[in-house]
Design a protein that fits this description.
alpha/beta, Siderophore_ABC-ATPase, 35% helix, Rossmann fold, 17% strand, ATP hydrolysis activity, iron, cell membrane, 9 strands
Amino acid sequence: MSSKRNRTIGMPAPYLRRIWLDPSRVPDRAAYPFCLPFLRDEFDLDFDRPITIIAGENGTGKSTLLEGIAVLAGYDEAGGGKGYRPVDHSNAVEAMGGQLSEALRASWLPRITNGWFFRAESFFSVARYQDEVNAEDIPGVAAGIPPDFLSYSHGEGFLRFFEQRCQRQGIFIFDEPEAALSPARQMEFLKLMRRMEESTICQVVMATHSPMLMAYPGARLLRLSKYGLEPVTVEQTDHYKVMREFCADPAGFVEAVIDEWTPRRREADQF
């Protein structure tokens, strides 16, 4: 491996400073993903901090947005890093970020294409590929010795993978990492995020449903809805409000949810 590839650029994150939608590059406004509500008007997103976190309900387009950013950074829209495109995960997820990326423009200072795009759906196939290739580019691993990520549980393998990967300069994109992590592992992931931030050479863009991860101090937290992106506090998110109600009265909360569904079921059974 050349020293040029390993060279660290002496500038702190964030490196990706801005993305925006170029209307002249949109082939069909009525087609997915351009029909997503947040893309209907002018879309423009600035990155002013090393860590940006995006919250929002399913279907708002969080994953598609992250896929688009990942492709702009040179990664596979189904997950992985620059140069990692295992054949066996090409159909692991429904990916539309490639189409979105063609209509996006980006401002970098400077352009960084090292890092990784994590998706829980494709992590095992990506990790299997990494186990099969030479490990010489991973800090702390002897050259030629596979890291063997698949010998660990999903959460343990994920954390070990990124503890090794995140020692270098790059942009790291996480799509709902909590899907692979128990609450205790999410706490470990928060520590990993802090190490990445303190290194000053890592930029993180993350979509999550986890209030624990949303609460990372100093991150820019944005809510994606049909109205677009807006800055929020973790306490303003629906995710936090729901979890607060649940924690205040777990049994009562679950019973109320079930009771809300039961009359609808009985009404449907009458027809």
